[in-house]
Design brief:
This protein has about 350 residues and is of the alpha/beta class. Helices cover about 40% and strands about 25% of the residues. A hairpin with a 2-residue loop joins β11 and β12.
């Protein structure tokens, strides 16, 4: 049967080189719709799969936010890119210490993959409302959680040429995919850089951030967004592919590898602020989790564990907050709004 690679070749032959964003969109749509990409048997692992502490702390954070909002009922709890549902399962267990919160909670998962939706249903033992996009969530106060969601969205790439900044495209060299550069120079306020430098932007991510900011400004609520990325806009080629927990060529095996790019947290923060939201905290995952008390939670779990389990808990803690692990590469944006609900 024809695969994604054949579809892409046909598309390029018909209309010419396509944008990097379109390439990512087509590849990732197939990738996530056809498999469970997580865990040892998959291509990558995320924080919720590393330790229960991650989802538990986010559940408690949302519980505190809900109380500070005046305990609105209903409260829409929305997770974007929920994976296997592991984060939300740990979230609900921890937040379940307050039955009133669980009673008020209306769980919505932004997930388009039928494979992952099926796994989420089994993991959560409940059937949430699945949505394709944020706009599908009913109006009302909302608590929004996104872990490693924005990095998988399609990005646009520009390359600095002798003529200026031009869009980078995906074309064909025989049957092989290759990067080419548009002959049209982009207009805009772009930074000066050496020829060959790459500048990235994520228009879809900015649109989602703007919609999220407007939603929280209008109806109240909060959000926490965690992803790997950089704090200041600067030229960099961060597009990467992963397969079997190893880096892979971006242009090889389209539709069968995980394509991601580092998140520009400066642009994300600006979009949220311009939409009226209050960007309350912007820090590293290490500092965020330590502020929530992950070290104390690890101590409690270790005290009730076997020596082998305690070693696993401490290893997971280091992976989540270690400076040479996920601790500083991953950034956190927290937004809230004091609108009375």
């Amino acid at each position: 049967m024809p695969g994604v690679a054949d579809d892409l070749r046909r598309l390029i032959v018909q209309q010419g080189p396509i944008s990097v964003a379109q390439y990512i969109e087509i590849c990732n749509a197939h990738y996530y719709a056809t498999r469970d990409p997580l865990g040892v048997a998959g291509d990558f692992t995320t924080a919720p799969e590393i330790s229960q502490m991650f989802g538990e702390l986010l559940g408690l954070w949302c519980l505190v936010q809900w109380r500070q909002m005046g305990a609105p009922d209903p409260i829409y709890v929305v997770e974007a890119g929920p994976g296997r549902g592991t984060l939300m399962a740990d979230f609900l267990r921890a937040a379940g210490q307050d039955p009133a919160f669980i009673q008020a909670l209306r769980l919505h998962l932004i997930e388009t993959s039928p494979v992952l939706r099926s796994i989420q249903k089994e993991t959560l033992h409940v059937e949430p409302v699945w949505c394709d996009r944020l706009d599908d969530v009913p109006e009302g106060p909302m608590l929004f959680v996104a872990n490693e969601f924005f990095d998988a969205l399609p990005i646009r790439q520009l390359e600095r040429t002798t003529e200026g900044w031009c869009e980078r495209l995906v074309g064909l060299d025989g049957d092989d995919f290759c990067f080419v550069v548009s002959d049209k120079t982009e207009r805009g306020d772009y930074p000066d850089a050496e020829v060959g430098a790459v500048l990235e932007d994520c228009p879809i991510g900015i649109e989602i951030a703007q919609a999220l900011g407007k939603r929280i400004t209008s109806h109240g609520g909060g959000a926490v967004m965690i992803d790997y990325g950089y704090a200041k806009t600067e030229p960099a080629d961060t597009l990467q592919a992963v397969k079997n927990h190893q880096y892979h060529s971006v242009l090889a095996d389209p539709g069968d590898v995980d394509l991601t790019a580092h998140v520009n947290f400066e642009r994300l923060s600006q979009a949220l602020t311009e939409a009226g939201a209050n960007v309350d905290i912007f820090l590293t995952q290490r500092n965020f989790l330590l502020t929530l008390g992950i070290d104390k939670r690890a101590e409690i779990l270790s005290a009730e564990a076997t020596p082998e389990q305690a070693e696993e808990i401490n290893s997971a803690l280091n992976r989540l907050i270690g400076a040479d692990e996920m601790g500083t590469l991953f950034k956190v944006l927290v937004i809230n709004n004091e609108t009375t609900c």
